[in-house]
Amino acid sequence: MNAELPIRPGPARGQVRESRPHDSAIKQVTGRAFYTDDIVEPAGTLEAYVAQSTEAHARITRLDVAAVRTAPGVRAVLTAADVPGVNNVGPVLADDPIFAEGLVEYVGQSLFAVIADDVRAARAAARLAVVEYEPLPALITVEAALAAGSYVLPSVTMRRGDAATAIAGAPHRLAGRLEIGGQDHFYLEGQISLALPGEDGDVTVVCSTQHPSEVQHLVAHALHVPVAAVTVEVRRMGGGFGGKETQASLFAAIAAIGARVTGRPIKLRLDRDDDMVMTGKRHDFLATWDVGFDGEGRLHGLKAMLAARCGYSADLSAAICDRALFHLDNAYYIPAVEAVSHRCKTHTVSNTAFRGFGGPQGMMVIERILDDVARHLRLDPLEVRRRNLYGDAGRDVTPYGMTVEDNVMPQLIAELVESSGYQARREAVAAFNAANPILKKGLALTPVKFGISFTTTHLNQAGALIHLYQDGSVHLNHGGTEMGQGLFTKVAQVVATEFGIDVDHVKITATTTAKVPNTSATAASSGSDMNGKAAQAAAQTLKARLAEVAAAEFGCRPEDVAFADNRVSGGDRSLGFAEVVTKAYFARVSLSSTGYYRTPKIHFDKDSFTGRPFYYFAYGAAVAEVTIDTLTGEYRLDRADILHDCGASLNPAIDRGQVEGGFIQGMGWLTSEELVFDGRGRLRTHAPSTYKIPACGDVPAEFHVTLLRDNPNTEPTIHRSKAVGEPPLMLGISVFAALRDAVAATYDDPAALPALDAPATPERVLAAIAP
Amino acid sequence: MTQASVSSRPRFLLGLEPRTLDLADPTRTVLEYLRLDERRRGTKEGCAEGDCGACTVALGECGADGVVRYRAVNACIQFAATLDGKQLVTVEDLAEGERLHPVQQALVDAHGSQCGFCTPGFVMSMYVGHEADKAAGATPDRQAINDRLAGNLCRCTGYRPIVDAALAAASEPAPAQADRLRAAAAAALPALARADTLAIEADGRRYFAPATLDQAADLLAQWPGATLLAGGTDVGLWVTKLHKRLDTVIYLGDVVELKGIVERPGHWWIGAGATYNEALAAFAGLHPDLAELVRRIGSLQIRNAGTLGGNIGNASPIGDSMPALIALGAQLHLRRGAAGRVMPIEDYFLGYRRTALQPGELIVGVEIPKLAANQRFATYKVSKRFDQDISAVCPAYRLTLDDQGVITEARIAHGGMAAIPARAPRTEAALTGRPWTAETVAAAMAALADDYAPIDDMRASAGYRLKVARNLLRRFHLATTAPQTRVHVLAKEVAA
Fold this sequence. Notes:
By secondary structure, chain A is an alpha+beta fold. Chain A folds into 3 domains: 5-26 and 461-519 and 527-598, 2-Layer Sandwich (Aldehyde Oxidoreductase, domain 4); 53-137 and 185-278, Aldehyde Oxidoreductase, domain 4 (2-Layer Sandwich); 285-392 and 406-455 and 606-768, Aldehyde oxidase/xanthine dehydrogenase, molybdopterin binding domain (Aldehyde Oxidoreductase, domain 4).
């Protein structure tokens, strides 16, 4: 029998609600946290490089890799002909070839791969290929695709009431247009896979992915082996943000095919430029609208068109564009809506999931509309926003037919207005602007109401696996992946709470398809909601078994057995947790259990675009104050105040980290991060030297972040917490709105509607100020 | 130079341990050396171009005073051969068993890591700052921390907890492990100093690190086609990004004569091998705008490596200090073999990456005239992001005024407006002989279009560049004539 783990007296550490550090924090600060590229490679590991298309749209008339094969250090060259199974890794439709066959549809598309002793040799050899193209007309922009009627998927319309009539009958009417730029994920760790060949054609892929199960399935199809022959594992990612939901599959498949062909382990790691050129990004959108409203600024009807640049293939664009429609209302009641979503096919990289998943673009549109309405009526935009919020019966149903049952927005905004001193600052901003001819300030409060659940209903399921060992240590595994968001820490806290033991006794383990199968991506902010519940279910199963054992020992009823303070108690007796586990072993009780969860209540009908796609909503709001320079368009975020709803937080420190990080990432999307494609479809901003994410000096010195108190989830989610991964990103819209507020201050006419598109680079700000 | 006088293997300390390198590739980077040869994988590659800071390591050097000083640099673009005579400290060196360095502990306590991939780089930047603070007895404020960490990108946290951690760690003393590292360097490094040239030859490639200016001049005469390497912030990328093979490299970073920074009665002298950070005092002495400009060149890691001479040598069109040097009338001192010459820096730039430097010639230093009391000067940088970005437009102005406020001489140069940093003769003419008034400025703003035909690129459009260049002339006028008018969002009173 193993020695019992040392148990301290007193309450167990690391229960839910406690601000525990991230489980990897000490490993990360000491360089001891292993990412995929840090694993010591097995002897004989080869490295791969993927050769890419230089054309946006062309027929390949010649692809001759003979010289590549004989170059120094080269062990294999992989082309479409070398794919044992299906030459495709499309996640929804089969429209993402692993290697191009006869046709290329974006600059950066995979042509062939070189396997060599090291990546330098592979890259050098790739240059020896002879590739000839017959160029075809390329559609690069959304506008070009719209003009050509080029779509990857059919258009979708969300409709409630008669928008045209409502607009026609409204006292006021405005039309508008907004361009919203895309965003590169810029996870610090680029895409990487390490494929290890096994016996029987099996392969294990260590892969930086948010979706191990999908990688597993697609690798199996590419290799033409049963899914069970493929294992995908990930301990942690160096950031994901949606960029590793579908985008890892291509590289995992190439590494796996390389391992099959050579019989050697294959590492495929993209450098930064290749990563930015080859992988999908946040969709850029073009939106136009026609809105009718009354003199109070209340919306009567809205007709909107949202066109997304999907790139050359479908990827997740259907769900992303759906979510843009789901968030076109943001926090506001719009009586009559007709919104059409076009999923434009362009000859650019296939855009993909990115934190918010279309929601941010939908919200940007309605926030701009309300800004326009307010300026047109010479009202404070905040006042107009408040007047349009969802409210009581009659004003509580979304355009897609879901009743907003948990609306805390009016109170949340009231609290933030108070804590941020909004009204006094509104006056101070006006005074500053009157006194300063060159610099102008702007102030804005914008809300976020974000729907939680995968809108593809069947994805809302999760599994977990827990083993108890005889020393009382706990092995925890679930289908969620860790990309920095603290999921593993939160789920461990859930399990520790269930057993009433120190979280240090819960061993966090790498996600692997071999332990929990058929998992959904760690995405849609659903990680802790779903995996927390699944792990809790597994723990409760084990607890019930242990309670039986303890009850027999204590002479009490199983339901009277309590798990707390690292002990198991019943009647007037108690034993250490490990002692009970040991007794269970000797009593021949299984100490391993799976757990499973599916989100209740949700349903959605794609044909009518109605239903309850979301289990609940997460709420938040932010106030941003900026100063712009009217000579250059340069600006600073002077101050930000955030109040965000995490329900009853599982770990307030981790949630605050999500809120702050999401806000700054959202600000970057709308300010300095600019994806510039040239006329030939080449991305010109493909490294940090040209693509500028926020730096630490961009964070305001005054940055007040508070989690909404006393607001447990109205739904019985895991410990009444709320999802927090995505919603805070959209708090960054406040910065964009504040910039426009400052720009508007340069106009003599208070009803002016400055044309400011996103990202609001200094150049766009300068272009938008009064001539 | 004879064979007997050269050594062929770089010697240095890796943390506490001595190392002698046999380099099969003289351009192997420090990051490759660490990750592949030492299998020290705490140091990460995020971009391989010195922009993200995930690979930040500390380099320790022992001064003539016996004091060890550390600087943070990007391992991804430093060649391992340049470690010769130095101490390399990485994230694995800082903790003593389970006892974390204060900056590490503070990051844990402040929840300063999420995905953690950038974290080792932040730790190293914070460690170097901590060491410097302790040596100077200084306590950094938020702005100082921001400057120190501007070269470390984090995509997860939004930086607030990281900056808080750096501020919290500042009140902690240096731990025993940090003192141990410092003592090891003080003990070992003096013995590693060379008076001769380090010469590596491998795989048909050559790398020389001369110790004196004479050695450097001789080597360059022998290898006139050699790539001159200083801080590596440009040349490093030729290897990691352009995947070029450099056959012969002459590293000038060990040449003592190139390091000098001297204030003389009429000018400042900045040796070609002085890093931007070392030259900061000289720039600050010339004008506060120059100090502010240099603060925004690259990041601390880049300024700790990049040299003024290297920036001039490669004639990068994006060197932010070039317009200022032109406006100030800086003189470039060049040497070829035993012969020297002096030329105005504005005559040096001939075209995109093309200069007046002759084969076999090297830059010794720059002589920068000080401003007279009747001169007005400014230099500005406009970019998408304030920190660590490349300017879209970067002007510098020097006006000489007579007693009546009439402009007797105007020297104006811009970066970002042409393929090279270039003067604005028509704008200067529109100013010369006229009073420094709003009317004169308006005429000069119009003339800028005659001086430059800027281009559209991913940083800015031609139209924006021209408009901003014009408006910045107005900013300069307001700054010099109406100092009560706030003209820059970075000015502290706005944020306060």
